[in-house]
Amino acid sequence: MTPSKKSLTKSASSGSKKQKKEKLFHPQSRKANQLVRTHIRKSKLEDLARKRSHKQSSQGARDYVFLDGVSDFNVAFSGHVLGFFYSTLPPEGELSPDELHFIVRDIWLPRHDKDLEQERAKRRKGRPKSTKETQIEELKIREAEEYRTGFGSSLGDTFAISGGL
What we know:
Elements: H1 5-15, H2 30-60, H3 73-76, H4 81-88, H5 97-108, H6 113-122, H7 131-149, H8 153-162
């Protein structure tokens, strides 16, 4: 018996698998626009996820960095707790506890008051708080509580190492 043509072509085609060709779409077609929109949506979601993870990691653990020889006071206020205190040390390298409490209470803690007042002034009567205003208030509460309960042993250890306090 001789095999039929169908069985020969079938077995021949099954032996060599053809790869599916990638479809090409006209740049102005609806399908191309759909693909562009999905790509943009995916990139936005990835960007938001990256920002969210960065925000959570920065809120979870503060970035304690020494700003050695900082001359710009705004740089010292950039949120680095130890960098700020290191920049406020006098040339002798020592602060009394009263001076340290003065710096924390009257300079460090109220540093966001101006921004908070601006956010409150922007808000119209009867409107909810903006996200920025809420974040500033939460930061102030967290830092005030941290000051009230103590900065912890790591702050004292770091200052002892740096030669101050």
